[in-house]
Amino acid sequence: MSIVLKLDVTGQPRGWLTINEAVLAYARSDVLYGIGDPLPPIFGGIQRISGARSRIDLQPIIALEGRVFGEFVPRLCNRTLFRRDDHRCIYCGKKFAKSNLTRDHVQPISRGGKDRWENVVAACKRCNFHKGSQTPEEANMPLLAIPFIPNSFEWHFLSEERILGDQMEYLSTQFKAERDWAI
Ligand SMILES: [Zn+2]
């Protein structure tokens, strides 16, 4: 099942919608414009008066009317964090399955580190255990890439695995992070 990328009036990505939510937005006339090749049409009921069947041609990206509520704050969860770090351990550089990765706090929480994008990295269990409550310097475990806060385009890309071509094209125009892994 496809999902629809929601934009605010300024064109900033603001979430993923289910097909049902997108249909509702059309029904409420909240859609300012759509981008991308139409998805398979959605048919509604037969209209009593005209006898016509209602039909909505959804597009994969829709901009919705409405107020813009402040700056986009990318939600932090392990799934998106591990995707940001390419499922690699930031310390040994090897790739791991999700189940073998952990969220490591570069500056440990016990030492005042925050649970924020710029202080968290994917780490394999072995490296995380070895590092313990030390800083990378103390543990002599340099970071192979720099943690970054994804912008709204990057975050929407990271948060969803079934992205359509048009959505990818739209999101990738604003990818800012360029990462060089020191491996
Ligand atoms: Zn590792």
Overview of the molecule:
The protein has helices at 19-27, 78-84, 125-131, 136-139, 152-159, 165-172, and strands spanning 4-7, 13-17, 31-35, 42-46, 53-56, 61-64, 101-105, 120-124. With 183 residues, it is an alpha+beta fold. Among the domains are: 4-64, no CATH class; 78-139, DNA Binding (I), subunit A (Orthogonal Bundle). A hairpin with a 5-residue loop joins β1 (4-7) and β2. The two termini are 37 Å apart. The relative contact order is 0.17. The mean pLDDT is 92. Zinc ion (ZN) binds next to β8 and α3.
Mean pLDDT: 92
The main sheet comes to: 4 strands, mixed
The tally of helices reads 6
CATH class of the domain at 78-139: Mainly Alpha
CATH topology of the domain at 78-139: DNA Binding (I), subunit A
Written as H for each helix and E for each strand, in order along the chain, the element string is EEHEEEEHEEHHHH
Q: Give the overall form.
A: elongated
> Helical amount among residues, as a percent range?
10-25%
Strand order of the largest sheet: 2-1-6-3
- In terms of quaternary structure, what is this? single chain
Note the beta-strand portion.
15-25%
Structure class: alpha+beta
Q: What's the count of strands? A: 8
User: Any ligands, ions or cofactors bound here, and which?
Assistant: zinc ion
- CA radius of gyration is 21 Å
